[in-house]
Structure formats: structure tokens, C-alpha cells
Amino acid sequence: MKVFLMHPDRDLESEQAPSPNSAELTQDLELNTLFEAMAKGDKFIFKVAQQVVLSSLAAPGEIRYRQEILQDCLRNPDVVRQIYQIPIQALKNKQSHWMGIFTSYPGGILSSAREMLEMFVNLLRALRQIADEYAERFESPGFRRFFTMVQQELDDDYFSVVIEHLNTLKFRSGVLISAELGRGNEGTNYVLRETNHKDQNWIKRVIGRKSRIYSFTLHPRDDHGARALGELRDRGINLVANAVAQSADHIDSFFNVLRLELAFYIGCLNLSEQLAQLGEPIVFPLIAPANERRLSFTGLYDIALALTMKQKVVGNDLYADNKDLVIITGANQGGKSTYLRSIGLAQLMMQCGMFVPAESFSANLCNRLFTHYKREEDVTMERGKFDEELSRMSDIVENITPNSMVLFNESFAATNEREGSEIARQITCALLEMHIKVFYVTHLYELAKGFYDRHLENAVFLRAERKAGGERTFKLIEGKPLQTSYGKDVYQKVFESNQE
Amino acid sequence: MTFYSILSRNAEDSTKTDTIEAPAFFGDLNLDQIIDAITAGKNEYNLKPFFYTPLHDAETIYFRHEVMRDMEDPKLMAYIKAFAEKMIIGRRYLELVEKLDFNYHKKGWFLEAALVYCDAITDLERDLSLANVKSRGFLAFRQYVTNYANSQGFQSLRTEAQKVKGGLSGVKYCVIIQSGKFKVLKYQGETDYSEEVEKTFERFKQGAVKDYRVKIYERSGMNHIEAQILDFVARLFPEQFAAMDQFCERHDSFVDETIRVFDREIQFYVAYLEFVADIKLKGLTFCYPQVSATSREVYAYDAFDLALAHTLLYDKKPVISNDFFLKEPERIIVVTGPNQGGKTTFARMFGQLHYLASLGCPVPGREAQLFLFDRIYAHFERVEDIRNLRGKLQDDLVRIHNILDQATPASILVVNEIFASTTLNDAVFLSKKIMARVMVLDLLCVWVTFMDELSSLSEKTISMVSTVLPEYPALRTFKIVRQPADGLAYAFSIARKHRLTYEQIKERIKP
């Protein structure tokens, strides 16, 4: 029995090592805002959301598999939440009854594992009932497989066999153990033997056969002997205790996986409900393979901004198919960073199978996503800002592969414009030649103009819009880089508003 | 070719008498550390006496070289180790039999001991026939083992043991356990219940889960319940147990004496080679030295202190190797130079090399010719001993006097910083006196000292100096080189560091 709701062919790993640039991505793309919205206060969902969003899928097929399951969830939120309650119930039962296998002798292991199994079996029945009742409403291959499996593996006959074993395992009338002579004529290969559990009188039946039998009754005060006999019994039931305990563990981990994998979809449900309240659209993206260059969207908005402001925010449109380089310049506080973040967020959400915050969205996958944002001054004072920037860039270069994507936000501006531009130019050119998609928000006019003058077919230049009066629309439009970033506007705005 | 021993050519060799005490110079030369490390984990063979007993004839040393070279073949080494392991197991079983209480239990373990011994012999015979052995020792031993393994006594031991074991292995019985009582009967084909339970729940298998099988302590004892069960089993299967009784009566002591002695003695080689293998991992080499009881023209290239190499085994620090040679009429190496420069290490190395050679072992170095001594004497500084009521100087003199009394021209003397507790003038005076006697005795000697004067007393002395890196005089190279003791090497290199040598000053001062 496998859950397989996150991958068509494997479980979601419960603990994945975070990719080395997770911290940067989380900070630069405001990912925690996204995770918090998904979690709605549930730490477990937060953790799962974090893990899943930060581990992109590589194959378009895998992404579509999740998309379809998520679409099922959006159609049947109540049923999905009902299923999610089952593993949660298992966890609660275990905690409230102090269930678990804590002893270290076979007799104890057997009885606590048997008890746990009994509890699990009841929850499995509940799962079967949900499957019987609602399976038909689900269309995704993932959910269909899941429900079919539940119905086939957990049929009534199976439940009755399991109940029978759970009774036999109490061993009310003794155990039958076979053994052989090992080294030194010591008993070995102790194997618990079938006594036909339906028959209470198995002992008489065994003894009734034509074989000599030697019996021995311990003296009532022979404690030592009683202990030895108990030890022998433990040897006999060691394997069956292990089998029962491992079965309990397996079911336990089945529930854990179910909880883990559904947590992601519950998080998506939570998020979609909040966005619906804000009146923000969501859409399932169209995916192109990593070696193509595709990026077209309408109404793409920064989900982190919308969630933080708790209101509808400005969306942008772009047609940038077959482009490798997007350079964004223009007015200060014109929405450049927001724009860059919305692209990064959409890319990550798409690559983990989620919907994206837009009216329409299509993009190619990227092998890995990196962000390179300008940082606060290094608090340790160990090195200068420019040195620090280059050091982070070196980490990226260390880890990057072709068909990855880098988002630069005002990088390499911590030196004079000429040096900064030249270094940025060399880095950008090298990345492009290595088939890496680059988004670059910059004030470095020389850098932007340099690329603009080359009339590259695979480059797009965007500018934060500024109306003639200095008013910002927070829209980005295609346009030639300008030599001023209209810092004067901002200056005036600040000083004028102070004067008022 | 008759086989006597894997350690010596003939029966009446000195190795037959076990030396219990370590020789007096062991501590000073750190040989105690080396031998402790070599024999560690092999206590049951009591190997130390072998390492405490130097040989005095070259022929036996070469006899051991041959065996050692054979043992360097990893195949043969593996064979011998496999054999040794089985012999250990066999001994463990026999020791166990002595401690047990119940008849069938004792006999059961006795049978196991015989079985593992038979295995050991059969495998050894086959393995040796496959091994490409060349030494006199192994060729003779191989012949011995072949004869023994094919002897009627051994053959009948083996067949009977296997037959009895076969019978007992076939025994399969059942125990019904209820509270306070049990029943024993023959097994009649009941199916495995654990498997069935496992099968029922198989569909839930997820990833790996914890193993709940309790490691039930496999003690080699039997409580009275188990003994009672065994008695019942013996009654259910009388033939198999009668056969075992007979076997035990017929073969009450089965280990061959020559095999037993070989099993111990071969460990001399195993232990040494295992120790050497670790040291070689540090990139150091060993060689089989030429030995001579007449020529004092000794030399060694890339030799090193084996105790130090062992201490630095898991350290990144390299082990520095050194060369030395003596030509006629040279006898005495006088080592001088800065402290902590490896002088004492060098002196120890000289002693170790000679001692290890006298055991018939390969020595630490690339190539060596060494002297076959009668005794080694070491004079190292001692902590003042309050009990002998002598001053330190007097103590030094008493000890060196005793040594010179006993030493013969075939002895080796290692002296380390003698007379450090007196004035320089006294020390030089006394040292010259002692040195003169050493020369008269014609001893082979290494003499570590801070007194440069000693290095050029006569044609018998040569001078070796510990050196420093010119650029970093504070760092020791631990290289000891043969050059005059001018006492200047150190000062010179400090000058160079400050760019104050003649050439440097000329260069820096522009005309």
C-alpha cells in the first residue's frame, strides 16, 4: 500500500536536505509569507510546504501529475480534509493512549504491537468507507489509483483475516515451537508453529498423533525455571513479535506518508481560499521543457505582496518567449523588485505542481533557480560589500548548471558604475553562453545600455512605468533603458510630503 | 627435510628456551613500545618471548627472512590467518567444555571443537599446496601437514566427527510451552506461523522500519529447563546420541603437538608483518638487511625510528628517515646539533635496527647492512633515584662502568646525553675518558652529545649533525647528516632569515 499522491512512483521523503541556496531563495522571494498562508498556523503544513516548494520537480509529467491531483482537491476540499483527518486521528490515538513499542522483550513487544494494530485497523476501515463513498468524484490518475488501492487491498475478507490473527496472537492456550540442535547441542532455529487458530483444542489434536511425548511440570517454587521457560517462549515468539511490530510500524508510516503528502494539498487549499477572498486569480501554468525558452503571462502578480497587503495588487503582462535575458531598469519604487519576485515565485510554484498567481502563465522549467540580491553590509566586517557579492556569485557559479535561471537584483552596484558594469557584463555574458536564463534588475545604466545596443534577439528590456508627472503605475513596460532612475522624484516626494 | 620449527632450522636452537624478561635496553630504545604494539591483541600466543630473544647466527636469521618473504604473499598470509582463526575457535570450544555442567551439552561442544580442528587442517593442507612457498621452513612444514592430513588417525577423526554431526543436525523437535509446564515431541510438519502473520500484513510494507527482533543473548550455558528438554530429545532420538557418546570416548585428545606449536610460532611473522603493513601506509619502506658477525661496516638508507612511526601512524606529520654508514676503521657515530632535532630518535633507530635484524625481521629502511652483535647496551639519562643515595653524576658513572665491564668487542653501545649534570669542562673530561675506553674495546657505538669536541677524537669517530631548514630555523627537519660539527649551522640559518648573510648584505647594500 503506497500513498503516491506527490510522485507517481515514490513517496515524498519526510526529511529532505534543503538545497544550498534555500536560505537565499526564502529571503529574496519572501517565501515565508507564502508558507505561512499555506500553513494557516499549522507548523507541520508549514514545514511540508517549505520542503515541497523548495524542491522543484524536473519532469513535466510529474508536475502535471500533481496539478491534476490539486485540481481534484480544489473540487472536493471537504473530502480531502476528511481523509487528512484519518492519519491525524492515528497520531492522536497513539499520543493519548501512550501507544508505542517501548519494551524490549518479545512478549511485551507482541502485546503492545498487537494493540496498536487493532487501533490502526479501525482507522483503515474508515478510510475504506470514504473511498467507497466518494471515489467516483475524483478524476486525477493519482487519486483514482489511491482509492482503487484502498478498496482492493482493504476488502472485507482481508479485514476478517486480520481480526482472526489479532485474536490468535493473544496465545491464550500456549505456544507450539519447533527447534533443532545447533552447536553444542543447544536448541536453535526456534520457529513458532501454526496451531490452527480457529481450533481451541489444538493441543489435544497435536498430542493425539502417534508420537512419544515427554512432559515436565515445574515445581511451583522454581522461579528460576519459570524464568527460563519464559525466555524460551520469548525465543519462540521473537519473530512473530517482530512481524507484528513491523506491520504496525508499516501501517504507522503509511499514515505518516498520507499525512505528509496531503499536508501539501491542504496547504494549497488554504492558499487558494485566501486568494479567492482577495479576489486574486489563480491559474494552472502551461509547462515547457527546460531546454526551451518560454515566458508569457497576463495578470502576473506578486503573491507575497498580495498576502502581506491583504488586497488585490497590480498585475503585469509579458510576452518573452525565446528570450534568455530580461533586463529591468527604470524608476525607483516603480515595482521592479516586486516584478522580479513575482517571476521567481511563479517559477517555484509552477515547478512544484502548484497553481500560479496570474490570469494566464506559461514558462519553461529551469534546472535550478538562483537569486543574487544586494545584501546589507556584512555584519562581521570581515570583508567589503563588493567582495561579499562576488563571493556569493562564486557560490552560485559553483552550483549552477545549464538551463538554470538567475534573478539578479541590483547586483554588483557596490563599486563604481564602470567596474560594476563590466563585471556584471562579463558574468551575464558567460551565463547566457552557458544557456542560463538571466533576469537582471539594475540601475547600472552602462550595463543595461551595453546589452541594449547589441540588439540581441534573445533579450527583452523592461522599464518601470513613470507617468509624465512622476506618478508610478507599478506596471512594467518594454522600453529602452534610461539614464536616470528618477531618484529625484522620490527625493521630491519624500521632502514634499514632509513639508505638508 | 624434517620439520622442526618455523622459527629455526634445527631442534636445539636457542629459541626453545622462552625468555620471559625484556632485555635491559628495551625501554631506552623504545623497543618496548614497538614489541607491545606488535603483540597487541595476540596475548594468547604469548609472543613476547620470541621478541625478547635475539639470534646470534646469520643462518637462522636468513632462515627467518625466507619464511617472512613467503608470508609477505597476501595469499599465504590469508591462508595462515584463516587457519589461525579456526584454531582459536577450536581452543575456545575446548575451554568451554571444561566449564559446562550437562553431559550432552559438553559432548556437543567437544564435537564442535573436533569439527573445526579438522576443517583447519584440511583447509591448511589444501591452501599450502596452492601457495607458492619457497622457504626451507614452509617447504618442510608443508610436507609435514600433507603427511598428517593423510594419516589414518586424522582421517578417521574427520569422518566420524562429520557423521555424528550429520545425525544430530537432522534432529527436529517441538516444545509446547504453557504456563508452568512444557511438553517435548518430534516435529511433524506444522507450518511457520510468523511467516503467515508477515504475509498477511505484507501489503503495508513502506520503507525500512525498525528491527524488533530482540537479540536474545546467546550464552553458551544451559539452564536446567534446556537441559531437561535436551534429555527428552535424546530419548526421542537415541541412535544419534549414542553415536556421539562413542565419538567422544574414542578421540579424547585430538590436537597434534607439532601443529599446535606451529600455530603459535607462525604468529611471530603474522604479528610483525601486520604491524609493518600499517607503517607502510605512511609511505615508509622496510628491507631485509644483510647481517654479519664480523664486518662492522654497517649502513642503512632511509631508516627511521619504528616506535615514532607507530606513534605518528594516525598523525599527518611525516616520519623523517635518515641514512648512516661506517667504513673501516670507523666505529663511533657522534651526533650533535640543536635540541629537538631528532638526535635521540636517531640513536634509538640505530639500536632498533640492529635489534630487529637480530630477530630475523625486516628493518625500517630501504637498504641495510647490520652487525650481528652479542649484546646491546644503552646508556640514557635516568631520573634521579633517591634510593641509591648516589648523586646523578656518580650514578651515570656507575652505570657506564658496569656496561664497560660486561661489554665485548661484539657489543653495541648507545649513549644519550651522558654527564648532563656537571660542568661542561668536567663533562668533556669524563666523556673523553669513557670514549677512550670504548675505542679500546672497539665497540660499535652511537653517542649523542652536545659536546662538539667528541666528534673528532680519532679516526674511529665520525660526526653527524641534526639540521635545520635555513628559511625557518625554528622548524626542525629531523634530518641527521654526516658533516663536521661546527656548531654554526643554526646561527647561520638565523642570519639568513634576517637577510644578514654575507651575500645578502652585499646585495642589499647598493653601491
Q: What general form of chain A does the structure show?
A: elongated
| Mean model confidence by pLDDT of chain A | 87
Q: In which range does the helix fraction of chain B lie? A: 40-55%
- What number of structural domains do the residues of chain A give? 2
Structure commentary:
- The complex is a heterodimer of chains A (500) and B (511).
- By secondary structure, chain A is an alpha/beta fold.
- Chain A has two domains: 57-278, no CATH class; 281-499, Rossmann fold.
- Helices cover 51% and strands 14% of the residues of chain A.
- Chain A has a six-stranded mixed beta sheet with strand order 9-10-11-7-12-13, with helices on both faces. A four-stranded mixed beta sheet of chain A has the order 4-8-5-6, with helices on one face.
- In chain A, helix 14 (417-433) crosses helix 15.
- The longest helix of chain A is centred in the middle third of the chain and has 56 residues, at 223-278.
- Helix content of chain B is 48%, strand content 13%.
- A six-stranded mixed beta sheet of chain B has the order 10-11-12-7-13-14, sandwiched between helices. A four-stranded mixed beta sheet of chain B has the order 4-9-5-6, with helices on one face. Chain B has a two-stranded antiparallel ribbon with strand order 1-2.
- In chain B, helix 4 (74-99) packs antiparallel against helix 5 (103-130).
- The radius of gyration of chain B is 32 Å and the shape is elongated.
- The relative contact order of chain B is 0.11.
- The interface between A and B is large, with 74 and 63 residues.
- Strand 1 (175-181) of chain A pairs antiparallel with strand 1 of chain B, so a sheet runs across the interface.
